[in-house]
Write a structure and sequence with these properties.
441 residues, single chain, 11-stranded parallel sheet, Monooxygenase
């Protein structure tokens, strides 16, 4: 029998029209190609029972996550053509008493934005949720959703305040087409006023001037932060208010958008200084470097790097450290001893391929003169790994796991490194060395 995806579309649609919702769900979970066929039927009918507002109290975890922007926009929806209680939705909006109800209602009445307005009604009713994730196209260009999130965190009005929320993910990602969609600092920074939060993962653009909208919040409750985009100077304004932060993931980012933080100047000593407020509490640190597509000849694409991460050696509470390989080896003509930037308390050291082949890495150039592009960095990396391993017993006595993250096109480079031979030379008790990806760890 031919697979469902191989038969004519008309016949497949006829068959799926008789399949119960529970079976449609199982079909979507079976295979991507089957999901594409079955998913439209799974969501062909959605009933929003606004009058039973108390049901929102039972929602503890809500994940509204997308995978990007291209081809992932909300479809136009004429509310007159579907079974949705429009009058009850209008009443729900009016009961919130927010000053922008007319704007919200206008979005509901427009087929182009009605789905956005419906999602926002749902979010407005959340009260006892402990985990919330809003990502990518669910928030990119969705001003009303951002406005309601900001109101729930700061203003209140007739909205519940999410006083039970423990973990939030608000990750939009950069919109390279519409710069105006990247101006979401006010709504994201409002999340820091939710006093029950212990973990925040957020894409935070840089404002022209960093200002707390309602005075400095109390951030003693935060134990985990994952922040992308925000510059190290603005990051410091958050970290100085934390007292119990144990885990930080910070992604430095640069591209062609008009973000005030966009720069090709990377100063590692400034980065270390920006982290100093959490020196005494931090146990896990991840530093990642991203440079977006640079197409314009006007934009200066050459990276200028100064300083080193040697100051991290003083963070004696760290047990897990993930940094780019080149941030420890340096960018100068002579590579630095990598172990000098690693605290002796670290048990797991992860070295990523971020900017590994950037022209700013000057110590790699002699290797390129002697080897082809595939093997040159591999030989250089192998040399540094051996030097690092030589010093593990004396400088990094607790290190047991050495990981090399190869997420992008650099994976073949790491494959050229003879890890087995290096491992055979260093048979420390329980010591492990491996190549992986961040998505598997």
């Amino acid at each position: 029998m031919s697979p469902l995806t191989d038969i004519p579309v008309e016949i497949a649609n006829h068959i799926l029209g008789f399949v119960p919702t529970s079976d449609l769900l199982n079909l979507c979970l079976t295979k991507r190609s089957l999901r594409e066929v079955a998913e439209p039927f799974l969501y062909s009918t959605i009933r929003l029972e606004v009058e039973y507002g108390q049901l929102w109290d039972y929602i503890e975890n809500l994940y509204m996550e997308g995978s990007g922007f291209m081809g992932h926009f909300f479809r136009a929806l004429d509310l007159n053509s579907v079974d949705i209680p429009v009058e009850q939705c209008l009443d729900a909006i009016k009961k919130t008493k927010v000053p922008y109800t007319d704007w919200w209602i206008a979005k509901l009445n427009s087929s182009e934005t009605s789905l956005e307005a419906l999602y926002t009604i749902f979010l407005a009713g959340l009260s006892n949720s402990k985990r919330l994730a809003l990502t990518w196209h669910f928030i990119n260009g969705r001003e009303i959703i951002g406005k309601v999130i900001q109101s729930k965190a700061l203003d209140g009005f007739g909205l519940s305040r999410l006083e039970q929320l423990r973990e939030v993910k608000y990750y939009k990602g950069v919109d390279n087409v519409e710069n105006k969609n990247n101006k979401i600092f006010p709504e994201v920074i409002s999340l820091f006023y939710l006093s029950s939060l212990t973990s925040i993962e957020a894409w935070i653009p840089n404002p022209p001037v960093f200002e707390w909208p309602a005075g400095e919040p109390n951030l003693n409750h935060l134990t985990s932060l994952d922040i992308t985009r925000l510059s190290e100077d603005n990051l410091t304004k958050i970290l100085t208010l934390t007292r119990n932060l144990r885990s930080l993931t910070w992604t430095w980012s640069c591209d062609e958008t008009d973000d005030p933080g966009n720069t090709m100047e990377l100063n590692f000593e400034n980065i270390v200084e920006s982290l100093s407020p959490i020196r005494g509490t931090l146990e896990e640190l991840r530093i990642r470097l991203q440079i977006g597509p640079i197409a314009s000849p006007i934009f200066k694409a050459e990276l200028n790097v100064t300083g080193s991460l040697a100051g991290l050696a003083g963070f004696r509470g760290l047990t897990y450290l993930e940094v780019p390989f080149i941030s420890l080896a340096g960018f100068g003509d002579t590579p630095l001893p990598m172990e000098d930037g690693v605290p002796p308390t670290v048990k797991t050291l992860a070295l990523s391929d971020d900017l590994l082949l950037d022209d700013a890495v000057r110590w790699q150039r002699p290797y390129f003169e002697e080897y082809n592009i595939g093997y040159a960095p591999a030989v250089a990396i192998d040399t540094h790994i051996e030097a690092l391993c030589d010093n593990i017993p004396t400088q990094l006595p607790l290190l047991r796991d050495l990981i090399f993250f190869a997420d992008d096109s650099f994976a073949p480079i790491f494959e050229h490194v003879d890890f087995d031979a290096t491992m055979a030379m260093y048979t420390y008790d329980g010591f492990n060395m491996r190549v992986s990806t961040r998505y598997n760890d």
